[in-house]
């Protein structure tokens, strides 16, 4: 279980977790510490999780981390972002891209009533 100690809005997107794995040998002798110490870097498998601290009235965004576009990129490719309003309030949204010349977003803004999906 991962649990934040406190909420700081300024650090909302700054937290990451590294998950490493390695195929274990059948030798029961090495301790966990020794296993990781002796592990060749080429045998380690890494995954990263980015932590998002979300208040109850914030939109749920799916996917929460990676928006995947699968090729071949010989024609326009689309991917879907789902917004869910879990709160009891009406919420307006807008979506911007860091590279607006390369991505088109439709709709890029809107409002929806409480407890609705968009």
From TrEMBL:
Molecular function in Gene Ontology: FFAT motif binding
Domain MSP: 58-118
Highest rank taxon of the organism: Eukaryota
Signal peptide annotation: none
InterPro entries: Ig-like_fold, MSP_dom, PapD-like_sf, VAP
Record's subcellular location: Membrane
Principal place of residence: membrane
Listed Pfam families: Motile_Sperm
Gene Ontology process terms (BP): endoplasmic reticulum membrane organization; endoplasmic reticulum-plasma membrane tethering
Family: Belongs to the VAMP-associated protein (VAP) (TC 9.B.17) family.
Protein name: Putative Vesicle-associated membrane protein-associated protein A
Organism this protein belongs to: Schistosoma japonicum (Blood fluke)
């Amino acid at each position: 279980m991962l649990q934040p100690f406190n909420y700081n809005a300024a650090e909302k997107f700054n937290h990451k977790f590294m998950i490493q794995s390695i195929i274990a040998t059948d030798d029961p002798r090495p301790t966990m510490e020794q296993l990781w110490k002796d592990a060749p870097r080429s045998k380690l498998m890494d995954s990263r999780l980015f932590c998002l601290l979300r208040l109850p009235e914030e939109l749920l965004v799916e996917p929460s981390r990676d928006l995947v576009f699968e090729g071949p990129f010989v024609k326009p490719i689309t991917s879907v972002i789902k917004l869910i309003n879990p709160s009891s309030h009406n919420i307006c949204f807008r979506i911007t891209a860091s590279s607006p010349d390369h991505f088109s977003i439709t709709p890029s803004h809107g409002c929806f009533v409480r407890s609705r999906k968009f």
